[in-house]
Amino acid sequence: MENAGGRNVEFMSLHDAVGQFEWRGSSFGRAVRFLERCRSEMRRFMEADPAGDEEKDRFLETALRIAEWGGIQNLSSLRRMGRKAPHEPGGHAELLNPQQADTCGLSEIRHMGTSYSKIYSAMIEGFPICDSRTACALASMAEIFRIERGLPAIPGVLRLWLPRARTSRLAGMRNRYGFPGINDASRRRYAESNLKMAWILGVRANLDGQFKEEFRNRNHRIMALQSALFMPGYT
Questions:
Q1: pLDDT tier at 34, thresholds 50, 70, 90
Q2: Angle value at C-alpha 75, between 71 and 81, nearest 5 degrees
Q3: CA distance linking residue 101 with residue 111, whole number of Å
Q4: Residues 6+ apart with CB under 8 A from 219
Q5: Residue 207 and residue 51: Cα distance in Å, rounded?
Q6: Which of 44, 91, 100, 229 has its CA 20 to 30 A from that of 145?
């Protein structure tokens, strides 16, 4: 398969896929360092009490930088928030925290989608980025699990709505099993799928194995698993 840089890559496991990861010229290690810097800046704002205009401006700048890094082209809605940004998407961090979140409490989410998933990943510990690549790869694994176990349907916690790819060709290639799609306007369903992904990857991150041996930081393990899913989902 080709990765994001157009280079042919091969891998035999999710752990191997992390080593092949590339996005906009960044290896997995560079991506982690970038997101950790953003997470540190976000954390400084969230710990400020009260937050002044300088902290609010820095929050918006960091959010925009994450979205741009993630390849989001239309940043107008985020820019229009201005100093309200910390209280709008910023205010949803508690609702999406996988350690305490409940899918029944997601109706209050007003800002969700591909760009916001990337921003929340820097704000919330253990919250992975959910885009069409990672979600399609995880959903495909859920369908394979269903087939191998002889189940009539995928268990509820593994059922995901999949963010739509930018083109119908890519959507057909990634969503091989025809899972229901969502767009950025489907805020509650998008949030639920992202939260389920956080729970699934969180459980996997706690298991012994190569990921736990190589990545001592639990959040880095979740980022590694997310990046591994990105690779087969990229086709």
A1: very high
A2: 140
A3: 16
A4: 125, 126
A5: 38
A6: 100
Residue 115 lies in a domain: yes
DSSP 23: B
Report yes or no: 224 and 31 within 8 Å, Cβ to Cβ.
no
Would residue 170 count as lying in a domain?
A: yes
Structure tokens at 158: 């593994």
User: CA 128 → CA 14, 169, 189, 220, distances in Å?
Assistant: 16, 25, 16, 10
Burial 116-135 (b: 16+ CB within 10 A, else e): bbbbbbbbbbbbbbbbbbbb
pLDDT in tens, 71-118: 887 788 888 888 888 777 777 888 999 999 888 889 888 889 888 899
Provide the domain limits for residue 219. Answer: 13-235
Number of structural domains, the chain? 1
Residue 208 corresponds to which amino acid? D
Tokens at residue 52, please? Answer: 């002044």
Residue 121 lies in a domain: yes
Average pLDDT, the chain: 84
**Which region holds residue 126: left if phi is over 0, alpha if psi is between -120 and 50, else beta?**
left
Residue 8 within a domain: no
Measured CA to CA, the distance from residue 218 to residue 226 in angstroms comes to: 12
